[in-house]
Records
---
Amino acid sequence: MAQSVGKQQPKPHLREEWVGRVYTFLCILFLLLTIFSMVYFVASKGLSTFIINKVNLAGFLTGLKWSPDSEPPLFGALPFLIGSFSTSILAAVIAAPLGFCAAVFMTQIMPKFGRKIMQPVIELLAGIPSVVYGFVGLSVIVPLFRDIFPGQGIGIAAGAVVLSIMILPTITTIATDALASLPAGLKEGSYALGATRWQTIYRIVLPTTMPALLTGIVLGIARAFGEALAVQMVIGNSPHIPRSLFESTSTLTSAITLSMGNTVMGSIQNNALWSLALLLMIMTFVFVFIVRMLERRSKL
Amino acid sequence: MKKTLMLIIALVLTFTLAACGGKNNAGSGANGTTNGTNAGNGGGSADAGLSGSILATGSTALQPLVDQASKRFMEQNSGVTIQVQGGGSGTGLAQVSQGQANIGNSDVFAEEKLEADQAKGLVDHQVAVVGIATVVNPEVNVDNLTKQQLIDIFSGKIANWKEVGGNDQNITIVNRPASSGTRATFEKYALGEKVADVKGSIQEDSSGTVKKLVGETPGAIGYLGFAYLDDKVKVLKYEGVEASEETVANGTYPVWAYEHMYTKGEPDAATKAFLDYMLSDEVQNGDVVDMGYIPVSKMQVKRDVEGNISK
């Protein structure tokens, strides 16, 4: 009896089930479509430098000279690669200790004040437009470095300092979440054995959450790697490998934004910029891959 | 098993859709523009008043001038909508030659950027002249540089101000990127040759940043459009000639360039009216002067794409 009634009326939970299913499927389809068309666009543009314009791939990756307007045009992207890596890794080196300390403070030492005030303030940093960071870097950090160190002030060091502030929210937030999700039993066990608070943090909390902390660092580096505007304003943009941290150099992103609008779509100069973009995208894939590896190693 | 199958189907679907999507977009984009122009023509013939929509895109240096003039033009001709976009000279020239924009704004001659066959169909409308001055940090005590000295500085042969009569101070070059129209003009008319980027030189793509860096960095040298000159930077003479509106107009100061507005073939009625308006006294003696450009009408000399000067 109950069964026949159920069959005659449309079952609301089944309808809900289907609405949900179709909705999620459409969203995923749209997402995949966007991602694949982006990848396809950048790849087809970037590869045409090598396929249509016959630029040597090995020369592109290891060449030291970038002068797209000379005769013959030279496309050596190594200075940009070195610039990008050194700037973002140096930024992570500066930001990681700060981020970890902030996370430890917010979860272990003063959870109430930290969670309520510190975390929103640090997350606020993520909402500031990058042009503001760039301008602050150009007006404060560059003159400061120019006075203290030999050189022009602009360069990898200035870029790294600006980027370190920009990636601080990423590293701090991920570290805080990781530390907060640590089972209370671990810490209590440590205290029960007579360890002090610092011993517990240093010997138990940090080692256990290390993979998650590393994930934060890698995501921070990925963010720094892709940042264009702020870096472009303080790095100097000369396509050379610098002799010091305070000499003008370029990153992949700054080279792209500097010339993209002034080159004609389809020309060899423009295609070479898309090749840089492709390189940037491949590097981001590598970073994502590293994060996945770290997550798999996580003990939590 | 079922999941893998679903995933494969999803992927295949995505790829086919992505492929279609790409083509459709390109198609609809082109259609949109042609429709726009057609509508403009149709409207124009129906009544005497002008109507249609104009898309002007390209040079960011020229953008503020065109933008301001277009607002006034739209007030006077309510049937016309003009959209002014940036993107750079290269983008503007490419879009107008492909028919995606009605007007392509450019700092350089189309022949210098595009392939010969692409540039052939474009009609040049020169709306203003921009003068470019060599600027240095205010503490540099040099007032004049010759062409050869400039070449030696920008190619890195001279690296200290004392070699050209200044103090013992290292020279910092603040350059524009190789693709920039301002740099092309400076290299062509001030240096007479293309120079490679010197190690340690700075490159910035906005005039504001160039000015800030030249003004603050000791021993810095760069070049700026006349519109950006003020007491924060020191303007140098070129071969003994002062950089000013008069010296550009009478042809004694050679470092200047036209601001171009290109159309593909002859423009339609609305676009032509707007270009005429750009050359009218109202704009030439008003907005053009206000924004630091030199009116085309004031020029006593003319220059063609090869750089030949005629009176």
---
Amino acid sequence: MSVLTLINLENVSKNYTMGEVEVNALSDLTLEIEKGKFVVMIGTSGTGKSTLLNLISAIDTPTKGRILIEGVDISFLTRKQRAQFRRHKIGFIFQFFNLIPTLTAVENVEFGLALVGVTSSPGNTSYDTKDIHSTALEWLDKVGLAHRANHFPSQMSGGEQQRVAIARALAKNPPIIIADEPTGNLDFRTGIKILKLMKELNKETQKTFVIATHNSQLAKIADYVISLQMGGVETYEQIPHDDLDKLIW
Amino acid sequence: MNFLSRYWRKKLIGDIKQQKLLFFALFFLCIFGVGSYVTLTMGYTNLYSSLDKIYTKTNFADVEINTHSDVWYNISEVNSFINNYSIYYPELEMINHRLLVNSGYNSSIDTKEYTRYQLTEGRAIGLNWSLSATERVNGFIYNEGTEPVHQLQNNSILLEAHYAHVYDLHVNDFLQTKIYGQKFNFTIQGIVYNPESLIVIPSRHEFLPNNRFGIIYLPLKILHEYTNLTGLANNIIIRVSDNLSIKARNQIISDFYVKLNDQTNNSFTSPVYQEFQVSNWALNMDLEEIQKIAIALPVLILAVASIAIFITLNRQVQSQRRIIGIASSLGYTPVDILLHYASFSFILGLVGSVIGILLGVGLSGGITWIYAYFMLFPAIISIELQLGVIISAFIIGTSITFISGIIPAIKANRLSPREALQGNLMISKGGHSFFERILRIRSFRIRFTVPIRNFFRQKSRTTATIIAISASVMILVVSGAFNDSINGGISRQFTETSQYHMSVSYEGFKFSDLGLLEDISYISQLPGVESVDPVLEIPSIIETNGRKEEVLIMAWNSSSPQTHKFQWTSKADQLIPKDGLILTSGLARSLGSSTGDTVSYGYPRIPYLGSAYKAAVTIWNLWGGGDRSRNETLEYLTSLITQNKDTLSFSSNAEEINFRYEDITVTGVSEEIWGSIIYTTIQTLTDSMGIDIFKNSFLDIDLSPCSKLILKISNPNNLTLLENIKTEVSSLSEIRSITFGYDLRNSINQTLTAFNIIVIIFIFFACILAGASIFTTIHINFQERSRESATMLTLGLSDQEFLFIISIENFFQTLLGILGGILPGLWLADWILSNALRVFYFPIVVSIQTWLIIWVGVLLIVLVSQIPAIVQGVKMDLAEVTKDISR
Ligand SMILES: Nc1ncnc2c1ncn2[C@@H]1O[C@H](COP(=O)(O)OP(=O)(O)O)[C@@H](O)[C@H]1O
Ligand SMILES: [Mg+2]
């Protein structure tokens, strides 16, 4: 395990039991993800991408094996500890955006921020509503939605909603951003824009992005690709394709 | 069950399984609604029919006509009048003459400390023993012993069962009795129930059942001998033909009454019809109360149930749009779909009603039994399965649930496949909350913003929940107000207002200079006696503004009695020694009078004090107020009063009895629980009656009458002291009974036990209602918001923080629910208390403790009943739910 390793999976298996049938979603998976990487996980439907993301983000626990995040084993955390872990370590971007419908754009970002507070300098965390509000506005500005701050999700387009979701994920300042099919519910152009935004933010913030998609074309934009197949896993590093507009899916 | 295809049947079962808890809560509401209806309705119907049976079996009098107090009629004279009269009115089927005589009893009772004797008041009833059971009006049900074949053995009596129960008396025991100053030791030959005392209430002015009031029955002949009233009676009881309408009955009786009074110089007071006979009237009041509750409670519960079912099914149709779409695009007909959703509520209604009916049938027997047990009813309790109630419960239960389920089902039926299939993400609309807009608040802490916005997000659902909570709070407020108003009123009456510890009744009237003052000074010097107030109690009639009320006048010997503290209701209130009258607040309310008004009060001129008046006038005329010594005059007066009493009081040669009316000013209104008592001074009464003609003569003889002495004791908790005083007082002549305030309080407390049980049942229902409705709402809210909830939890919200957000929202709902239930609850309580209980008056009060219990209790119930829904909610599969687009 190198110093740069952020996520480390050792012989991880995940089985689901549905009644009497046992479904083997992941078996004996071992891989490492380095800090700051833009990781794309590809694989056809049912290969276990979502399962893997759920394990990394402590939404679910593995049946076998160890998952180390920043060197800490999260496989055996309690329910409460897992919530704490997600709160501080993971930023989520969902396929269906999942904004809180009763909160405005800026409040949705505030909701994330309020969980961890605003850290201006190490050891100096503020939960002040004003600080949270101004930080949330800054993030909305970063995703280009300052003018939409007081709109409710129902008043925004899908792309806009996903931008808010991105702002909400990043505002918390977690080391890992998890995105499961983030463009799956968007049209082509909008999807590209969202990916561009994520790439930019990855560069700017140096946070690790792990994105799952069934579209193998998207692998081109990754620093690191995890390709899940029915038989096993294949991982490789690459120089990412920068001109996103040329992508087709 | 062929109307649903296999697929829908399976899905239906699946839906129910999936929402076990919710379904269970709806069931619960349905069962309780139907169950409470059946329980209460069958309960009171059973009680009614039990009473009917008792009344039929015992030939309960349709009407009763009494003479004025201290007036008797000659049985043979009245009988010949009746015989002539009933030739024209064969509807008067049975007429019995009875002699009712005040009496006293001395029986032992085991208390915690020791066995002691209680000298209580009662009534001896002489009746024609030669009548067969079928000829006797107001017959008996034997609790112990059997109907004596011919005559009661000498010195034997029948004893009314309530008294026998309190003092644990049985057949062949002795009963120490005092009738007209003579002591008797009767043998109890039977313990009986009599229809006129199923609840023993001695008079209209004593509203509380008094199980210590002993009633004995003995042959008229024997009572005649004991009382020197041979040939006389004072009570006529009549049964009319069964097929007579109430109107016809009243017509015949009032005609009879007028003619009877013509014959007897107005000796009789107005007829008392069966429904106003005190015991029967009190029973009916109870039953009416139960009947009212039997309607109100199920209506409240079923209304909440139907709202809950509507909300649930509506939500289900919403969330199953896609399934509906798929099904209809596959070719299932709208009827299939309609049937599917309708059958959901149909099953609820069907099973809920059946279980509710079974439960209700079981419990109704219990209610009948409990009531009969507390009221000490004879064993004839009729518990019947009433098909009508069962059928109506079934129809009500199934139709209410079915109707509330059919609207969402119709909606589902109308959904076009295209609409239904629209798989697009449904995002519920967001908006600023009412509070934020009103108060213009920005930047709440986000954990407050979420619940505040959720509040009233589904307006109709939030409203329904608030209504449900309000309904529960209403029930709680009514229960609390009942409890506080009645308990508080009684306790205030007996501690702050009536400050007496012992009350001593004379057998008749006692006049100041003819022994009363001696008695008072004797009692006053007994150790422990703090003060003695003589009181005169006489029935009267108050008239004002065209309203007329029968009342009891309590006259004190002074304007400021030592043992009674008036609770003035206005600053102008005061007792003026002469020509003043104090109304109790309930009476002031029913008369529409207040301090400063003039009312007129009437009293029967002759009967009460006629003998003394007549004696005084006779002597005055004889001696012209002079010549004789005081002592001689007093002696002569005493003998004349006794003589006059005999000659004056028998109808044929009595002076005509007229009501005298006097105008009098209301000088105060005192807040007390009695609804038919007025206070004045003895002086005021004797002045208007004119019996103080010796007052300003040189003999200066005071003939102020009194019927009761009220004692204040320095250390009322010392029972030994009380017993000693009692022993001393009972040695005086003409004492009928001595009651301890302590015993009165005890018997009141006993009576209230039954009442408290009802209150507890009420509270139980209210809690269930609040709990089930909150559970349903939260459960549905969860289903609807599971996606956002899952998102919050995924983002790292802890379970506690999540609980907090949900609780805040429910807290606000509950707050509004409580606020909404308070006023209607108070109004309902006031309405029930002031309408149902005419004889006494309780202003509605709710104590701080009760408010606290209501607020904290309801909040607690709500917070607890949200837990099962929340536990189910937080256990959801975050990965699944954050992706599920149908939510
Ligand atoms: N909650 C679950 N219960 C049972 N099986 C599941 C569950 N989640 C996923 N699976 C199964 O695990 C396998 C991997 O699923 P998933 O991780 O969702 O794949 P992907 O996201 O790559 O499409 C599939 O066969 C799927 O059916
Ligand atoms: Mg997936």
---
Amino acid sequence: MNPSAESPSSIHTDCAEVQVPGQVFLVIAVASLSENLLVIVAVIKNKNLHSPMYCFICNLAVFNTISSFSKALENILLLFKDAGRLNSRGPFELKIDDIMDSLLCMCFLGSIFSILAIAVDRYISIFHALRYHMLMTMRRVLIILFTIWVLCGTSGALMVGFFEAATVKIFFIVLFFTALLLILLLYVHMFLLARHHANRIASMPGAQAQHRKSGLRGALTLTILIGVFVACWAPFSLHLLIMMICPENPYCECYRSLFQLHVVLLVSHAVIDPAIYAFRSVELRNTYKKMLLSSASRICKRCA
Amino acid sequence: MPRFQLSNSTSVPNHNYEWSYEYYDDEEPVSFEGLKAHRYSIVIGFWVGLAVFVIFMFFVLTLLTKTGAPHPEAAEPYEKRMRLTSCADGLGRQRETDGRTGLSRPLLEESRSLFHCYINEEEREGGRAATDAGALTHGRSGIGNSRGQVEEVGLVVQNMVLESRAEREAALLAHFNIPNFVNSELNSALGDEDLLLGDPPIIMEEARPRCTHHIID
């Protein structure tokens, strides 16, 4: 970018790119890493959580862990570069940059697919409750997870390799909108069934008034789930769309100047995910309590 | 894109080429002159649209909560539920004495017997379950009435436990805490919609293959 070539009048009306300090990324990445590692450890340790639903939640946590790890690594390397210890144009650094970008890409795709898998799994468990264990055997779950990993790995590598092509951006945008639509449909249908049953219970004599409060709570949970998904992924998808459609429009330029903020939102999705999916489970929370108690008792034994 | 100019005198090739690269910014700088609307209008429009979408979705879901009309056949399923609760009552009393062991074997035995009790109740029901099966299974009647009954029982079992959360002792709920299954969220204080977003409800694996084969065959 050659600032001297710009006309003076355009400088102060330009939408300068909003820079987010690297420390913010680092803090978010470290928080996400610790949360998701906790989820993975809890799911592995507790035998009760070796079921299809928790496999998908653990898979989401693994993708989030890898993405936050690579984001943290990228920021550390940027700090080194700012300190002058790294050459930003060297071949080794470019290769590392490509590898980290493809890992990030793979993890973003993987989180979308994992969220979809969790929604489909919940849907099957509600609407085909009695056939659930025939439909979702552990073998099928492992096959699904393997497919997701292979698909995301190759897509991530291809997307970073051919990022200039418009196909990559179109693929990402289409994937986001499809996932959003599917999640909306599945969860709203599940919600409608739950309302139907709650109304039938409420119509019985002796029903309590907590029925309405629980309905509001369900609506709130669903809104948070879908709202967080859209708020974290839509800005980035719109950014890709705008890059393709209007690269020279000043309004679009102002939107594109907020790129780093949109990436912050993407990374913060990895922080919020455990709170929405994993930590809502009572069994997982009990596992944490047991882990804390056992480690506390071990420390006490060493002290005494 | 490189741009080069040939010198005017072509008779003497003195190679007066001028190379320069053109950046898009130099050629067509994004002009911010004369913008009609605010420069961040796309950003503002996007976030306002997103907020409107989320709030609209919340209001729609809340309205669905409030305006759920009572089911016209409310009396009949109530009786059926009372009959089915008798199954759970009998077994619950039996198991209260055992206490809350948390062992898988006795729990599976009891869930098997509970399931058989429900299936027997359903079979005794006869043809009355047609409308209810249709309502509960949402039009999957093509599969067959008995299958619909089985699925209806599954859903009614879900309802049962929803109900029992408020009324029964925790011992009955522990009945459904079958290890290696997705644990039921229903013994927590979450709302019944969180049923969707917590763990799936009662899945009785050992009992089901035998029972469904018995019903479907």
---
Amino acid sequence: MAAYENRNAMIDHSRSNRPSWLRSLADSDVAVGWLFTLPFLVLWVWWFLYPFAQSFLRSFQDVSFTALNDATFIGLQNYIQILNDPEFYQAVLHSLQLVVIAVPVQTLLGLLMAVLVNQKMKGQGIFRTVFFIPYITSQIAVTTVFMMLFKKGTFVTKFFTLFGFEDVTWFADTRYALLFVSILFIFQQCGFSMIVYLSGLQEIPRDLYEAGQMDGASKWAQFRYITLPSLKPVTFFVVSVATLLGFQIYDQIAAISRYGALGSPAGATSTVVTYFYQHGIRYMNIGYGSAAVVLFFFIIMFITFLQKKWLGDKE
Amino acid sequence: MQANKRFTQLLHYIVVLLLALVFFLPFAYTLYTSFVTMQDVNKLAGMPHWTIDNYKLFFTNDAYNVPKWFLNTVIMTGLVIIGSLIINPMAGFALAKLEFAGKRLIFWIVVATMMVPYQMILIPVYVNMAQIGWLNTFAALTVPFLYQCLYIFMMRQFFISVPNEFIEAARLDGLTKMGSFWRIVYPLAKSPLITMSILAFAGTWNSYLIPSTLANNPDQYVLVVGLNSVKDMFFENTPLIMAGVVLSTLPILIFFFLFQKQYVEGISSSGIKG
Amino acid sequence: MSKMKRLTVFMLVSLLLLVTACGKDNGGGIPAADKDESQEKATVTMGFWGTAQDLKIYQDAAASISDQYPNLELKIKQYPSSEQFWNVLPGEIAAGVAPDFIKISNEGAYEYINKGLFTSLDELIAPSDVDMNRFAASSADIWKVDDKLYGIPNLTMPSMFFINADMWKEAGLGEYPQTWDEVEAAAKKLTKDDVYGITINIDAYHITNYVKSYGGGWGNGKTINSAENVQALQKIFDMYKEGVAVTPKALGYGWDGEVFANGKAAMTTGGYWYKGYLKDANPNLNYVALPVPKGTVNGGTMISDAYVVLKDAKNKEAALKAAYYLTNDKTQTEFLKLGFNSAVTSLSAKYFEENPEFKAVEKALDYSTDFAYPAETKKFIDELVKQLEAAILGGTSQSPQQLLDGIQQQFQ
């Protein structure tokens, strides 16, 4: 409590003589709640809801690429067509596979790295920076480099033969390509999770550990019973963000498919976003592409809802 | 006991070093590639083959106005970060600590917004921008991005951990809820705010899709878009692209290195305690 | 006020000021034509993506356009990439800020023409004083759909076949091959260790060349599973099965040019732009460029660039004049030096003097033809590549006939 009292002493009491209605407004949850969310809501309605509503409407239309305003209403036809397209299910499946592989691994790795570089050590700043580098380097550049590393005969693919993989060019093999994309995603997303966890670790009250030490708890017990529970809200954030970003992964796949069709090889890396991109933008069928995103939107919403339940996020 | 501690420490170093090696490798390769000619891409060439021509080109060719692009990027990133530091924590706090009708709805708005790939709304955004004459202005690159749902969500998750008694105590001392946010909670949320700034900095600085669409005039290019315009019609000059990547990544690297020092175990956390 | 609060207010205010200032400051997005309404001069914008060298040539041309057309002003609008251009075009058209004309390759043009993106030029030719006789008929024909002209040709060049001359000599092979059968036989001798006889990029451009040399073609979607096409595909499959061919991807390369430059394959199909790449990627490489080998007939694809006027261009006649101006001898000569063969007949001979390594390909100008992809070009290309990748990289057991039948079904 000592630190809190310090802060408290700094509070300036001179202005408590403001009009009382203003004061009670500033103390009301409803007023402050709406006031604090207002800037966000204004910008959101203007620059998200309005354009999104336009796109949403297109999902019920047959839209000409060259004349966006010249559209015909076709009801649910786009949706029906998508639900009858086996490629859509394949794309959904790939997206789910990617997330199921990548999210747990990147979460654990991010936490591990945060714990490692949170402890005092020589070169701490350098190591933190190094772990963060993949996140800030352009995704296309990292993909290009990974493509140089994961080709047949390099030390990387040879190393993976120890785990039963064949020595082939990973992104050219229909069995390994999606795993390759998952590895890329894990690699880049770890740095993000690390620094979120790093600041999460700063927020854990020191005296909890002090109390733990007095009780003679081992390092592991402290981690298990103090650190992990305290990081629960942060973990919910890290997991759901990784899930969302995993579902939206695009640049890496586009880079692999640069000289072929999106989702190369042979559609092994097609995801819902590449499906949207291919139909909505490449084939210029914007209504159809929008419908795919809307459908997928509900799938992710459902998953996030479940995650919120499982990870016990309180409100 | 002493030996055991030594061993743990050694193990710690070995694990960190190994991980660092893996995580640095791709950047090292990027760095290397940026210093060779196209002939040596995909091969390991010795020092005598290295060249700084790739970098030189960016600063000598008239088509590449790197200083201007750099300035554009600084302005864009700066404005977005300032906005983020105000709007996101405010909304995050409201969602974490205040009880009001509509709160659940707003929370799900935040979450749902993150799920929509930006490509889907890019064309309507573009048309709306054009209608109000914002294309190729900083307004286009910043105003819609002054808030980010990702960081509102993040700030909410951090503020949830702030004990309620803490705000109550501040109110007993004569502060309103609003006041307790600005004067107690906000200043003490230093490390989440730094995290947000770092992430917002990296995200904005590196963004390509949005600036290349909303500001596609060479004078208004931001660094990443400008450096990417070196692509040839038919093939890629990989070393040149990598030199561009290094040039655009370095500022974020420096920014991060300077700010990560703020994560110091046991100091910044002295405030928020139960 | 507390320091924190003051700082926040200050930041908010300065942010608002900056943002409003930026918003008003520069109306760069407003089409220039609106501002010039009072004047007689017409402003035309050309949309462009490409290298800095190309940009320089276009800017020089824009600077001198008033010599010939005093009432024209030409603006060059550069896009970061072609992908970026197509991403943003629908928005630009809806907002009325799209360029008036663009340069485009015939590989994807049929789809856009079919979707009504470009203006047919026939009625504008006479009033704009455009002399179509300056261009080779073969290239102008490529830009005709249903007898309507859609483009002013800028470049025309047949595709070709590249051989690593040193490897050829080393293997003790004599005359260069004229047919795919000879190529196949040579590839067997050229394959050793980690070098493959030929790299066949699973890409519509390359596949189309094989198909055409067997007298086949896509027929705009009508003849996808023709016997000739099946025969061509069979040849590709054979070379893979024998282990003398490799996809760039399987070796970890992006495209066949890289495989060829790095000496991992001795032969590949290609185009005029390989020259610039090979010069940078491997200046010591000795290569020869030949016409695409025969399957059963002389055949291959013709690559052609043209300037097309967008349907929504405000002043179509002015746009056509500006486009035509870009085919002037001086500008075309500049491009010629960069390795682009001009569609202007009188300049074409000079091209083969400037680029002697392509001399052998000159005769292919007579018989090479347009790609003739289905109207849903991108969808077709993606499907073709996907199915071929599944067969060659994924090991599905589809025969060429089954594969093409499957695609034909989707494109009636």
